[in-house]
Amino acid sequence: MADVAIRKPALAGRLGGFATVRLTTAPAASRVALRAPAESLAALSSALGLALPDAPKTSGRAGARSALWIGPDEWLVIDEAGADLMATLSGAGTLHSATDVSHRNVAIIVSGPGSEATLSAGCPQDLSLSSFPVGAASRTIFGKAEIVLFRTEEDTFRVECWRSFSDYVFGLLNEAAEDAGH
């Protein structure tokens, strides 16, 4: 029997933060980069079991599944339960493009009362609760890395970044958390 290589998750076991911020690596999840025209939204929403958002900085959520609006015809679909999103979407019966990006991305959870200040250290967006409420999502930058930012609770954000940038993003978040804690 041939040896099977097992990929070690990026940032496995890493924790960080400071007095008012906690940084944790999110568990593995299924992710799909989805592109589709407006006339396909109803069928895709039905297949996914949630409403695909159709406005900037918004998301749809049902159970462990979220769909984040990334552009006029683009979404990042995340299933924290690890469901086979490609199989789910293959039966939608409508025009769309879906690419499995589960192994490309890593998610870092930034939580606590200093989470907004921590992220603001490297992100140019206004992350105040009035401008970026719970459920808000956008593609943006943190430092020099492209991220997808999703506010899941008042003081909790999910930072999606490419695996190759995860050490950089985690390190910068950890430095910013220390500054936010002072």
List the helices and strands and how they pair.
Layout: E1 15-18, E2 21-25, E3 30-35, H1 41-48, E4 59-62, E5 65-71, E6 74-79, H2 85-90, E7 97-100, E8 105-111, H3 115-120, E9 137-142, E10 145-153, E11 156-162, H4 166-180
Antiparallel strand pairs: 1-2, 2-8, 3-6, 3-7, 4-5, 5-6, 8-11, 9-10, 10-11
Keywords, please?
182 residues; alpha+beta; six-stranded antiparallel beta sheet; globular
Your description of this structure?
- The chain is of the alpha+beta class and 182 residues long.
- Helices cover 19% and strands 36% of the residues.
- It contains four helices and eleven strands, in the order βββαβββαββαβββα.
- The longest helix is centred in the last third of the chain and has 15 residues, at 166-180.
- The radius of gyration is 17 Å and the shape is globular.
- The model has no long low-confidence stretch (mean pLDDT 92).
